Amino acid sequence: MTSIGILGAGRVGSSLARTLAAAGHEVTLGHRQPPGQAEAHETGSARAIRFADQRATAATTDIVINATPGDSALARLAALDTELTGKILIDVSNATRHSPDGLPTDLCYPGSSLAEQLQQALPATRVVKTLNTMLFPVMTAPSSLSTAPTAYLSGNDAHAKAVAAGLLADLGWQPEWIEDLGDITTARATEALVLLVPHVLRRSGFQPFAVSLAR
Predict the structure, then answer these.
(1) Which residue ranges does the record assign to the Pyrroline-5-carboxylate reductase catalytic N-terminal domain (predicted)?
(2) CA 20 to 30 Å from 134, out of 63, 141, 179, 209?
(3) Residue 197 has what pLDDT?
(4) CA angle, corner 33, sides to 4 and 170, nearest 5?
(5) Residue 185 half-sphere exposure toward CB, CA atoms < 13 A
(6) Residue 153: is it exposed, middle or buried by C-beta count within 10 angstroms (0-12/13-18/19+)?
(7) Residue 31: in which H helix or E strand, if any?
(8) Which tens digit of pLDDT belongs to each residue from 154-167?
(9) Which candidate, 177, 171, 120, 183, places its Cα nearest to that of 4?
(10) Residue numbers of the chain with a pLDDT score lower than 70
């Protein structure tokens, strides 16, 4: 059992929270403004999901997942440098600018990546990039696709990547579906893949898919 904090309570963060809680982890879901008096939300037979503000979430958990909007994540997480010191930060966001229809159109960090920027801003934190090359339903239900998807890993710390791979297993990812690309600079390749997404969505609608490696 691991204490996991998830920053961002939208569709991505909430879906990850439910699945990881069902796997037996202690999960805190970090809102920018935590809901009223609610301290926990029961998810059926899963453990309760606690709610807190994002600073408290980062401070009180062992592993932190960034599921906040990528275009503002750097400033938000850099402000949590003390709370994130010594911890593993799993970044699942993509930092993009958006077209009028709300879909990605350009990268915020061309020639770099959000993950690299986070690692530079948080040198005492072990950043791992993963799960950013798919629509969010696939993150927690990879076997729902007719073709095996790929979850890529990028990070400088081998132990942190092994921990992230363990959490991927709890989300339903088979070991052969996980591809370790190398250090954190490899995240710029997977983050660039998000530029495929709007073209696929405009043609096919919001049907779950992943950008995967076939061998």
Answers:
(1) 4-94
(2) 63
(3) 86
(4) 20
(5) 1
(6) buried
(7) strand 26-31
(8) 999 999 999 999 99
(9) 171
(10) 1, 33-47
CB 7 within 8 A of CB 31: no
Amino acid at 213: L
pLDDT number for residue 32:
80
Q: What is the 3-state secondary structure (H, E, C) of 71-128?
A: HHHHHHHHCCHHHHCCCEEEECCCCEEECCCCCEEEECCCCCCHHHHHHHHCCCCEEE
pLDDT at 104: 84
Helix (H) or strand (E) holding 165: helix 158-170
pLDDT for the residue numbered 93: 96
- CA dist 104 and 112 (Å) reads 17
CATH of 3-204, one of 3.40.50.300, 3.30.428.10, 3.40.50.1980, 3.40.50.720: 3.40.50.720
49/27 Cα distance (integer angstroms)? 5
